[in-house]
Design goal:
heterodimer, A: about 400 residues, alpha+beta, ten-stranded mixed sheet, two-stranded antiparallel sheet, 16 strands, B: about 220 residues, alpha/beta, Rossmann fold, five-stranded parallel sheet, four-stranded antiparallel sheet, 9 strands, globular
Chain lengths: ~400, ~220
């Protein structure tokens, strides 16, 4: 048998370009459908895993899908916002832990998410470098953000202004990085987390500034002296230990905006009660179960898989036919070689074994290459699939 | 070594209905025989019949004491591989193998021959004798015609056959190389105490053979 393998190897090696093309064709034929299925399944699994870890989400009435995706993936900064009153409403029932999220802003291309420390505990996001944020103006980076920006504890980064032409809009705020979170293979790896109050400062609801200087300015257009406030009031764009105490908030905290509230019910009964309660608020609020939202969404999106399967089936069949033709033509071309084998003392069975050995080597190589392709698809394309679903 | 009686072989593909007939033929062990004659008179066919590549329609062939005409396909094949060496006119070397692999090829495709360390050592010795030892690892496509001829002779001689059959072993060679190849063939035959039948069109060479069988009169 080892002679068959040796001779098959010599033949395939001698015709290595032809063999390589055959191996690539066979690999693609096998790996394409399996790879597409695998990537789709991975994307689906990743999405459902995140949804499974998030029992309920409350937010402004509107699209449940937008609310869910924004709360899970921080991907829609313009999604309708709710207020902290929603948090109060759930907390007043005593049926669930509340985790408010505010994901309107970004910094250096990554979503900036305002949360409470409870959110980080709930998602099991632990700091692996530096320490947890403790005061206003501090942030912790998701693992992917830290890797992409090359930042770590002690670094600073500026938030991205929402609109350069909005004169009344928020100022960019310089954030101090206190720590980097451990990798979780979740959307949290690609986010920058700040305290909710820091997010509201970016929003402009809280600020710190110099004490207003009082001065008397003579207005030449009016008679007499007019007492005027100095219009050049300096608003801080960085929170430091020196100016920290000057920061303050205006307005009713219950009206402060958030994107959504993750509600973690105490038990199944509490979940049912909470969902029932929200039926009464259907005009201004909604409570959704992310799992069912994501399942419905994925079922709709992955209907395309049936189309994929049909197309791939046809492509596979035609490739198989083409390969059969190549194979039979190749055998015909090798008639002279088979004649030599016969003259040198080979039986028909030995010739058959040689062809089988060559075919097996090609099939085995294709299997290895195909497996590698599927592995690569699984590792590199599942993220692409998830991004495609969220896009 | 060889005895042929009342042999008849009809070419199935030939429109002429030509039939090769040999009433009686004998050859001694160690004899060197040249077969000459015009094309299409059955010279190569005679060698193929002796080698058992094709069975006769009628008659008997004994080679080295064995009745070739009575053997089945497998027995004929094994007999040919173990007891006979064949140098084909077109050499029958495979492009995808190097010279050594071509010479050892019969050992890899027929279980009647066993590829052992001894065989490999014999190959090296024989290659040395034939002056192709440094070419053993070269692909056959890079060899000269003379080197390819030597490789084919080496392959035929390697299993130490009792009879070597060669069809035009000196074809397409210049006169100097013809003599050299024939020297090589004769040396190989003598060193293995084998018999030799060579089909040739080259009348300059026939003086070196013990006997000449002329097919001109057969037709």
């Amino acid at each position: 048998m080892h002679h068959d393998i040796y001779l098959a190897w010599r033949y395939l090696y001698h015709h290595r370009v032809r063999s390589l093309i055959l191996v690539i064709c066979l690999s693609l034929m096998g790996a394409m459908p399996l790879g597409v299925h695998e990537v789709m399944n991975q994307g689906k699994r990743a999405m459902l895993d995140r949804a499974l870890q998030t029992p309920l989400i409350a937010g402004r009435v509107g699209s449940g899908v937008d609310l869910t995706l924004n709360a899970l993936y921080f991907n829609n900064p313009n999604a309708p916002r709710t207020t902290m009153a929603e948090v109060d409403r759930i907390e007043s029932t005593g049926w669930a832990l509340t985790l408010p999220i505010y994901s309107r802003y970004s910094a250096q291309g990554f979503p900036l998410v305002g949360v409470t420390l409870d959110y980080l505990d709930y998602r099991r996001l632990a700091v692996t470098q530096g320490e947890m944020m403790t005061t206003l103006g501090e942030c912790v980076l998701g693992a992917d953000v830290a890797a992409a920006l090359g930042l770590g504890p002690g670094a600073t980064l500026m938030t991205t202004p929402g609109n350069l032409f909005d004169l009344a809009g928020m100022y960019p705020l310089k954030l101090h990085v206190t720590g980097v979170l451990g990798k979780q293979n979740s959307p949290d790896d690609g986010a920058i987390f700040v305290d909710l109050k820091t997010a509201w400062i970016i929003e402009g609801l809280g600020h710190g500034h110099e004490a207003p200087a009082k001065s008397v300015v003579k207005d030449p257009t009016k008679s007499g002296n007019t007492r005027m406030m100095d219009a050049g009031l300096v608003t801080y764009t960085e929170i430091t230990p020196v100016n920290l105490e000057t920061f303050h908030f205006h307005g009713d905290p219950a009206t402060y905006p958030i994107s959504a509230v993750i509600a973690v019910p105490n038990d199944h009964r509490a979940e049912i009660l909470l969902r029932g309660r929200y039926l009464n608020y259907e005009k201004d609020a909604q409570l959704v179960a992310p799992l069912s939202i994501c399942e419905n969404l994925l079922d709709n999106i992955f209907r395309i898989r049936e189309l994929f399967d049909g197309v791939l089936g046809l492509v596979g069949l035609s490739t198989l036919l083409a390969l059969s033709l190549v194979f039979s033509l190749s055998l015909r071309m090798r008639r002279g070689e088979m004649r030599t084998l016969f003259l040198l003392g080979s039986s028909r069975f030995t010739m058959f074994r040689l062809v089988i050995a060559e075919s097996l080597m090609l099939a085995l190589s294709s299997l290895c290459l195909g497996s590698l392709m599927i592995w690569m698809a699984r590792h590199w394309l599942s993220g692409v699939m998830l991004r495609w679903v969220l896009a | 070594m060889i005895r042929i009686e009342n042999l008849a072989f009809r070419y199935p593909a030939r429109d002429s209905g030509f039939t090769l007939r040999i009433a009686d033929f004998q050859m001694r062990t160690g004899e060197r025989l040249a077969v000459i004659g015009p094309s299409g008179t059955g010279k190569t066919t005679l060698l193929r019949l002796i080698a058992g590549i094709v069975p006769p329609d009628r008659g008997a062939i004994w080679v080295d004491g064995r009745a070739v005409h009575e053997m089945n396909d497998t027995a004929r094949r094994n007999f040919r591989i173990t007891r006979l060496g064949f140098v084909f006119q077109d050499l029958q070397l495979l492009d995808y193998l190097n010279m050594a692999d071509n010479i050892l090829h019969p050992y890899r495709i027929n279980p009647a021959l066993r590829l052992s360390k001894t065989v490999r050592q014999r190959l090296e010795r024989l290659a040395e004798e034939l002056g192709i030892r440094d070419k053993l690892t070269k692909p056959v496509t890079s060899l000269s015609q003379g080197e390819r001829q030597r490789a084919a002779i080496c392959r035929a001689v390697l299993p130490s056959p009792a009879l070597i059959l060669a069809v035009e072993p000196t074809a397409s060679l210049d006169p100097e190389n013809k003599q050299k190849i024939l020297d090589v063939l004769f040396r190989a035959v003598e060193s293995h105490n084998a018999s030799l039948i060579t089909v040739t069109h080259d009348h300059d060479l026939i003086a070196r053979f013990d006997r000449v069988l002329d097919f001109s009169t057969f037709r």
